[in-house]
Amino acid sequence: MKDFNFKIPQNINFGMGSLKKLPEILKENNSEHVFLISDRGLESIGVVKKVQDIIESGGIKCTAYLDVKPNPTIDIVNEATALYKDCGATSIVALGGGSPLDVSKTVGVLAKYGGRITDYEGMDKVPGPIVPMIAIPTTAGTGSEVTASSVITDESRNYKFSIVSYETLPKYAVLDPELIMTAPASIASSCGVDALIHAIEAYLSRNASPFSDAMAEKAMELIGKNLRRFVENRKDEEAACGMMSGSNFAGISFAWARLGNVHAMSHPVSAFCHVPHGVANSVLLPTVMEFNALVDNGRYEKIYNYIREGNEAIKDFKPEMLIEELKNLNEDLGIPKSLSEVGVKEHMIEDMAKDAMKSGNVLANPRETSLDDMIELYKKAI
Q1: CA distance linking residue 251 with residue 199, whole number of Å
Q2: Least CB-packed of 126, 178, 286, 318 within 10 Å?
Q3: How far apart are CA 60 and CA 91, in angstroms?
Q4: Which residue intervals define the domain Alcohol dehydrogenase iron-type/glycerol dehydrogenase GldA in the entry (predicted)?
Q5: Which residue range is the domain that position 124 belongs to?
């Protein structure tokens, strides 16, 4: 067994109604004025007001920035950072899916250390702890509340870059399944498959360890038996709890094992065509899994047994069975079948492949991947 390390530096609160613990958590952190980062969608359905009311019920001042958009840009980060500095807040509450959480991490970096956000692009460029942050995910998908990375779009380069540092981990996370029970079916499905992909890629990663495997396997178990059920009925409390905890465990697994080609390829798709991250990942998954099947060492069968429908015994498993099951899952959940359906054109492929190869996730992918391989993968997925 190769060497590995891990740490769990965060305080995670899970449970139906756990959002009500927010004032207590803020007071533990001596927060008298918090900066709430979220989006207009959550404002329109009353979730932002609900959180603001809970914060203010504890006698804590709250200033909100609500203009986060999917695939957030440098301009959004700069705008939010300026408001944070002007308002005098001392901590951040991140409310939403991956985009508000990613923006919150980057605001926490810039507010503490200054400069431009591109100064921190890459691995371990953040010099120390960021502004104290509490993450409140409203989707069961990103795992961003327990991951050390944030992804921001640089429109000048048409490129999604990552900031990877364990210093950006939120200090606290509040996982309240009630918050995901109002999600539209389309969000529940794409975010749910994204969470499943986090677990799968971490499980197959060259950097996998017994610790990340344990998190990934439990995540696949929980997501596999609850994903279809949750998309069918978001009011199903047991399924919502399974998806929320499964997404969290998947996030922990890839925080320590990294991801693979699915995520390396999906970031350019989102940057070029403004495709939601979870949708891009879901469309690419079967193609990448077929490519990686050449180096399967028995893990495909384990993944298959976690996500397949039915309990009948399976004999003579072949990797193709998992790939077909993933295609069936996407179809059941209304995920597009190909990249062409989400706007990717043939002439984009070479540039997207070059961007994908810049991702550190390619190095963790179980099968070695060249630029020519990446181009062929995009062509197959289109």
Answers
A1: 7
A2: 318
A3: 11
A4: 9-177
A5: 11-179
Q: CA-to-CA distance for 335 and 271, rounded, in angstroms?
A: 19
Please name the helix (run of DSSP H) or strand (run of DSSP E) that holds residue 173, with its range, or none.
Answer: strand 172-175
Q: Are 203 and 220 in contact (CB under 8 A)?
A: yes
Q: Which of 179, 200, 233 is the last residue of a domain?
A: 179
CATH number (domain holding residue 150):
3.40.50.1970
Q: How many domains does the chain have?
A: 2
Is residue 5 over pLDDT 80?
A: no
Does residue 381 surpass a pLDDT of 70?
yes
pLDDT tens digit sequence for 152-180: 999 888 788 889 998 999 999 999 999 99
Length of the chain equals 382
pLDDT of 85 > 70? The answer is yes
pLDDT band of residue 217 (cuts 50, 70, 90) is very high
Cross-strand pairs, 12: 173
Q: Are residues 230 and 326 in the same domain?
A: yes
Tokens of 155: 């429109």
User: What value does the mean pLDDT take over residues 345-354?
Assistant: 95
Instruction: Supply 218's token pair.
Output: 């439990």
Looking at the fold, whether 89 and 217 belong to one and the same domain comes out as: no
**Beta bridge partner(s), residue 137:** 96
Cβ proximity of 143 and 151 under 8 Å = no
